[in-house]
Amino acid sequence: xxxxxxxxxxxxxxxxxxxxxxxxxxxxxxxxxxxxxxxxxxxxxxxxxxxxxxxxxxxxxxxxxxxxxxxxxxxxxxxxxxxxxxxxxxxxxxxxxxxxxxxxxxxxxxxxxxxxxxxxxxxxxxxxxxxxxxxxxxxxxxxxxxxxxxxx
Length: 152
Prior knowledge:
By secondary structure, this protein is of the alpha+beta class. The chain is 17% helix and 22% strand. The radius of gyration is 22 Å and the shape is globular.
């Protein structure tokens, strides 16, 4: 009696193996796709997690996302929930919850080799304030200028 059961179980598992591959490829995320399609040399911000809800992109610094100049404007301030860098300079992007060229307020950084932060809700600025929906300005800086304060 045991032999037919073993044969039946073997056939069933073999059939299951044909339906389900032994290994699965890593599925691309929306941020992987956004990064692949991003223009080299730019920083991007999105209103939703997972790099959706495009807010804008910037090649240079923007000291006030809420004004009417530079790359980010008006309602872009305090609206980002995910960010992406396709920088080519090797620099990080410093994100601030303050505005102005004094680069005041708390900050955090996104490393060039980190590519993106798909959900800012678990990050804080150096001031202790949450990063999600709180970025008001950004600039390109050396990683050493971040003093170890990077997005996760």
